[in-house]
Amino acid sequence: MISLIPMLQEHASQVLEIYGYGIASGMATFETAVPDWNGFDKKYLPHSRLVAVIDHEVAGWAALAPVSTRSCYSGVAEVSVYVHQQHQRKGIGRTLLVELINASERNGIWSLLSVIHEENRASIHLHEQCGFRYIGYRERIAQLHGVWRSTVMLEKRSKLVGL
């Protein structure tokens, strides 16, 4: 059974391990090194941070990062959802994303942005199933290990916040 709980510093080693798997996959981020907890903590908003726990182990995590420091964009956040490689295809990503959407609205977020490597069809499909819509394609936007990569941008607008 999956339990969703707030992400705390005590989850740091497991969260960073899962992030490391995502980095190593080459499908989840342009990052190439796992940050320390302090760096990770500074990247994400203090609210809307979740871990999925199965048998006392973190199986996945989700968090929101601000898209800008400008106050006019305070209700816009970028989504991160990562699932441990041993727990993929069990509905954990969907469970995390649905609750992240709910948590975002409780915290005044009116627009969620997800930027996904175009090859990551599973993540694109998951976001579409959770109500995200396609808003853009960035061709050859950045290099990862010397290879140009393109991303798909998806957005979910709140029906409760920012109306």
Question: What tags apply to this protein structure?
Answer:
4 helices, globular, alpha+beta, 28% helix, 163 residues
First-to-last CA distance: 36 Å
What is the count of β-strands? 7
Beta percentage is 25-35%
Q: By helix and strand content, what is the structural category?
A: alpha+beta
Write the element-wise H/E pattern from the N-terminal end onward: EHHEEEHEHEE
Mean pLDDT: 96
Helix coverage percent of residues?
25-40%
Task: Report the sheet with the most strands, covering strand number, pairing sense and barrel closure.
Answer: 7 strands, mixed
Cα-atom radius of gyration: 15 Å
Strand order of the largest sheet: 1-2-3-4-5-7-6
Poorly predicted segments: none
General shape:
globular
Count of alpha/pi helices: 4
Summarize the structure in words.
The radius of gyration is 15 Å and the shape is globular. With 163 residues, it is an alpha+beta fold. Helix content is 28%, strand content 35%. A 7-stranded mixed beta sheet has the order 1-2-3-4-5-7-6. The chain is built from 4 helices and 7 strands; from the N terminus they run E-H-H-E-E-E-H-E-H-E-E. The mean pLDDT is 96. It starts with a strand and ends in a 6-residue tail after the last strand. It has helices at 12-25, 37-43, 92-106, 121-129; strands at residues 3-6, 50-54, 57-66, 76-83, 111-117, 133-144, 147-157.
